[in-house]
Amino acid sequence: MGDTQEPGRALDPDLRAVLIRAQHNELTEHHVYKRLAQREKNPENRRVLERIADDERRHYEFWGTYTQAAPEPSTFTVWKYVLIARLFGLTFAVRLMERGEEEAQTSYGRLEDRIPESKQIAAEESEHEDELTKMIDEERLRYAGSVVLGLSDALVELTGALAGLTLALQQGRLIAATGLVTGIAASLSMAASEYLSTRAEPDGSKSPVKSSLYTGVAYLITVLFLIWPFLVLGNPLVALPVTLACALVVILAFTYYISVAKDLPFGSRFGEMAGLSLAVAAVSFGIGYLVRILLGVEV
């Protein structure tokens, strides 16, 4: 077991570098949480963010008693997380911050033999994670299920439809027009179904109108994202793989967002949705080919 360090006592260069890096991270996180608290309208959320910001500042000052240094925060990191919070919500930004907190807990755990107080700091970092998990009530996550419904249905249904239409119709603009009409009709149908489903829920925690809007808009945006290759690219056999790639991008982006914001596993959820969409597209492509051959469809 190594010697216990005391404030003001000379540190070996490696330990001092670790502690200065810890100071830098703590001060940066202090400013991030402070800025997020200033933007937060929910009083309880703001109170917790301010308390965590104060803890991070105290950790920074504690490590300073050992290093006798005053590193500056990362302005870029502060700006980055504030921007992420604006674009994707407080929950997503805070969860990304939590990942840094987990790394800090591991680092502090390695310092316990030499700086016993690091155990308390690691415990406080863990407490931050627990509080952050419980504190945030954000509309976009309350309606995440509605968005998932719209996205997943559009990805599965429309990739399958476009794949089938590619061989059945063989004209990019005609395929796009058919897909657009089908997608708009399906988005309206999904929105209406979500409205009725949410209205029938006994707890009344979600607005049926908002639920239907989230579902319908998510479906429609996904439709537009999937049909553009057929409008831009001349050959539908070239447009189809581009559309499938676009579908994978949508699945990747949204699965990552949900996995971070709700602390869920990423790989299995991505694999499940991507596999289902591609499987339906493959089957539909084969059906389109059979329809063209058996019915003699030539456009």
Set down the secondary structure blueprint.
Blueprint: H1 13-39, H2 43-67, H3 75-88, H4 90-109, H5 118-135, H6 139-142, H7 144-169, H8 172-199, H9 208-232, H10 236-261, H11 267-295
Helix pairs in contact: 1-2, 1-3, 1-4, 2-5, 3-4, 4-5, 4-10, 7-8, 7-9, 7-10, 7-11, 8-9, 9-10, 10-11
Summarize it:
This protein is mainly α and 299 residues long. It has helices at residues 13-39, 43-67, 75-88, 90-109, 118-135, 139-142, 144-169, 172-199, 208-232, 236-261, 267-295.
Describe this structure as you would to a colleague.
This protein is an all-alpha fold and 299 residues long. It has two domains: 13-137, Ferritin, core subunit, four-helix bundle (Ferritin, Up-down Bundle); 140-295, no CATH class. 81% of the residues lie in helices and 0% in strands. The protein contains eleven helices and no strands. The longest helix has 29 residues, at 267-295.
N to C succession of SSEs: HHHHHHHHHHH
Strand content: under 5%
Strands, total number: 0
Largest sheet: none
The overall pLDDT average reads 78
Unreliable spans are none
Distance between the termini: 80 Å
Number of domains: 2
The structure class reads mainly alpha
Number of helices: 11
What is the global morphology? elongated
What level of helicity do the residues show?
over 70%
Q: Using the CA coordinates, give the radius of gyration.
A: 26 Å
Keywords:
single chain; 299 residues; mainly alpha; Ferritin
